[in-house]
Amino acid sequence: MSQVLTNASEFTVSEIAQAVKRTVEDEFGHVRVRGEISGFRGQHSSGHAYFTLKDDAASIDAVIWKGSYGRLTFKPEEGLEVIATGRLTTFPRSSKYQIVIDNIEPAGAGALMALLEERRKKLLAEGLFARERKQALPYLPRVIGVVTSPTGAVIRDILHRLADRFPSHVLVWPVRVQGDTCAPEVVNAIEGFNAMAPDGPIPRPDLLIVARGGGSIEDLWGFNEEAVVRAVAASSIPIISAVGHETDTTLIDYVSDMRAPTPTAAAEAAVPVRAELIAYVDDQGSRQRQAARRSLASLKDRLRAAGAGLPRPSDLVATQRQSLDLASSQLSGALRHFVQGRRLSFSNISSRIHPRLLQQRQVELLQRLDNLGRRGEAGLGKTVERARLTLDPRARRLPPAIAAALDRKETALHRTALRLTPQPLRAEVRHSRSQLEPLAARLAKAGRQIAVTRRQSLDQLVKLMETLGYRQVLARGYALVQDQDGKVVTSAASLRPGDALHLTFAEGEADAAVVGAPPRRKTPKPAPTIDGQDSLF
């Protein structure tokens, strides 16, 4: 077969692919494509995202690189109609063209509303909007945290309303209330307030208000982000949402503990009216005093009624008094009869009593006493002799008895010594050590905490010294001028030609000398006068 001669140039497959790639990228360097997301399965293990944009007639492959995916305000979702911004390119290995997406946004408010409704149903199914998980607002919060823009009218309205109703301590966490960074900043603010220690240097808020003014759904979209909703749901501090006007509704309104139609209404819901509270306390005090007076009057009436039913004290002792009077009247007569009876008995026996009888009785008693004394001396001698004979054998048995008693005492002492072991003392020492070790651990922990606190304070003072020190001024191009004595020169009028100066810069030092004529002092101009009189202006 003869070879066909032609002057057409030959290209390799790679050359054709690169030529097509350059043509497509030059012609469509930056495009905005509207279509429906199809085939999205989340990020690849590499962090990139691959899917397809389609409409009713065509489709185009799309890719979002890992670095661009993290900066997206709206994440791609299956079936969502979006407007993708990027550049067209080709993939030579499969002879396909694709769009590399840099930014993605929903296609119109209808798509945003559809995405919002889908996200609301998802979070509702998780139970984040349940009423039973909402916290009760404190009646009188000591500290109120506000998450909003520090430059808008919202914070001024909240502070003004709080000052009118009940002045409170307010902590403002400044955030952007719209844009790409709105949601992360709001999440950081809510988590930051919750991370504060109750007894820290900055008081932990008892109530949070998340607020911003009204706007379109795009402006309020940061408060519809899933991260913001979950941060509000996880907050241990009660939250009032006041995003937009009364007709605006965001997902944060469903999950917050209370939804306020406006920021001003949020401030009104946060604290009571101080004057009304004082009036309420006064009214309660007045009612309490009146109730105490009524209770005291009722007790007095009851006491008076109970006293009326009791008999009089004189009636209670009347019978006993009469019995006493009767007994006292009978006592004198009974005494007289008793004395008369005794006198009569004595007179009857007095005739039988004579001194001779008493003397005779005395003699008989003395004789009996002498007889007893003689018999007692004889018996005493015999008793002493018997005692001496009895005592000698006992005296001989005394030393062995003492020795036996000593042996018994030694045996008892030995038994007692065996029972005296150091085990109880060791147990007491172990118990005391077990109580001492936690105290020592707590002391060491407290010492480390104090050291960390002191170190942080020292670092802050060092940073403050570096910030306010003159060397920071020198770093901006200034110099420190000193004379020969080391004094700082602050006025040119104090210098004379030939004076030696020492200059200190941010980096290094140098010596200098004053040259030229001395500087002239400026004299103030006289004030203008009107008609020969000094002007007051």
Topology:
Blueprint: H1 13-27, E1 31-38, E2 49-54, E3 59-64, H2 66-69, E4 81-91, E5 96-106, H3 109-125, E6 143-148, H4 153-165, E7 169-174, H5 182-195, E8 207-212, H6 226-234, E9 239-243, H7 251-255, E10 258-259, H8 263-270, H9 274-308, H10 313-349, H11 355-419, H12 423-468, H13 470-474, E11 480-482, E12 500-504, E13 509-513, E14 529-530, E15 533-534
Parallel strand pairs: 3-5, 6-7, 6-8, 8-9, 9-10
Antiparallel strand pairs: 1-2, 1-4, 2-3, 4-5, 11-12, 12-13, 14-15
Give a quick precis of the structure.
This protein is an alpha/beta fold. The protein is built from 13 helices and 15 strands.
Structure description:
- With 537 residues, the protein is of the alpha/beta class.
- The strands form four sheets. The protein has a five-stranded mixed barrel.
- Among the domains are: 13-107, Nucleic acid-binding proteins (OB fold (Dihydrolipoamide Acetyltransferase, E2P)), CATH 2.40.50.140; 133-276, Succinyl-CoA synthetase domains (Rossmann fold, 3-Layer(aba) Sandwich); 362-394; 437-464; 480-512, no CATH class.
- The chain contains 13 helices and 15 strands.
- It has helices at residues 13-27, 66-69, 109-125, 153-165, 182-195, 226-234, 251-255, 263-270, 274-308, 313-349, 355-419, 423-468, 470-474, and strands spanning 31-38, 49-54, 59-64, 81-91, 96-106, 143-148, 169-174, 207-212, 239-243, 258-259, 480-482, 500-504, 509-513, 529-530, 533-534.
